[in-house]
Design brief:
Blueprint (H helix, E strand, L loop, with lengths): L18 H17 L11 H12 L3 H26 L9 H15 L11 H27 L11 H32 L3 H15 L9 H12 L3 H25 L12 H4 L2
Helix pairs in contact: 1-2, 2-3, 3-4, 3-5, 4-5, 6-7, 7-8, 7-9
Length: 277
């Protein structure tokens, strides 16, 4: 650990060496947010929470560790545990939900010193995996005990809890990834494509991704017809753009699996309905 009395200054983009530096950084961070009048953020695990964890791990003072944990780490850990329990339906526990949630948070605290931001993973992604692995193991162990003491009518012995969890996790990841990709297309179509006709096709495809839950037929021919009507182009133009977007989609999926997010440079969002169709 780094000595908590270190007094070197910290920039807005750097990581804190200890809790004292974290609060110095946090003051600058909040001043910048207020000065730029940034909108209220969605979610519960933000940059300050990640840097608070780094500061916590580097701090020697128990008092300062407890302070930064209470103010900046405990709440996102509780929310993370809550979301994972309900999202993946980890309900095979004898204990009440609040006790299970507290167990997960206690396990995260036990493993908090294993997090190393220099390896490239975000704290949210790292601790989500830690929490899920803990719950998968304990959920399956409790399910085995449940099968031993419950009648066949009460428990479906053919269920594979692990497979169900993995399948649900994959579906949830794909949903989140697709939402991020829609935003990516909105901000990058006029960078990826230079011809207005190609941009119209790409914008139509992105719009179908946006409306995917309202589309009842996913037949390839029917989708091509929809795109052709929306973009007012011939089919050969669609195939060319689809191939380009598919390549980027696969690359971004690899990126998402590693980091949990899709990165892009904001080149100005596209008002597709009014500008292209």
């Amino acid at each position: 650990m780094i000595n908590s009395q270190a007094t070197s200054s910290i920039t807005i983009d750097s990581y804190p060496l200890n809790v004292t530096q974290f609060y110095e950084w946090y003051g600058k961070f909040e001043d910048k947010r207020k000065a730029t009048k940034q909108k209220k953020r969605r979610g519960y695990f933000h940059e300050e929470n990640e840097k608070a964890i780094v500061a916590y791990n580097n701090e020697e003072s128990f008092h300062l560790r407890n302070k930064v944990y209470t103010q900046h780490i405990h709440k996102p850990f509780m929310k993370l545990a809550e979301n994972i329990i309900h999202t993946f339906k980890f309900y095979c526990f004898d204990d009440p939900y609040v006790d299970v949630q507290a167990e997960v948070v206690a396990y995260l605290i036990e493993k908090i010193d294993k997090y190393d931001h220099t390896k490239g993973s975000k704290a949210y992604s790292y601790f989500s995996i830690v929490a899920k692995n803990y719950l998968i193991y304990n959920n399956n162990e409790n399910y085995k005990k449940m099968k031993q003491r419950t009648t066949l009518d009460a428990v479906d012995l053919k269920r594979n809890i692990t497979n169900e969890i993995v399948r649900d996790e994959y579906k949830e990841a794909k949903k989140d990834f697709t939402n991020q990709m829609v935003e990516y297309w909105d901000n990058n179509l006029n960078v990826i494509f230079s011809r207005k006709k190609d941009i119209r096709v790409a914008a139509a495809i992105a719009e179908l991704f946006r409306r995917r839950e309202q589309i009842e037929i996913y037949n390839k021919k029917a989708l091509y017809i929809l795109i052709r009507e929306m973009a007012d182009v011939k089919t050969q133009y669609i195939t060319k753009v689809v191939n380009t977007m598919r390549k980027i989609y696969n690359e971004k999926w690899e990126e998402y699996q590693h980091s949990g997010m899709v990165t892009y440079k904001n080149s100005g969002s596209i008002d597709q309905n009014s500008k292209y169709f």
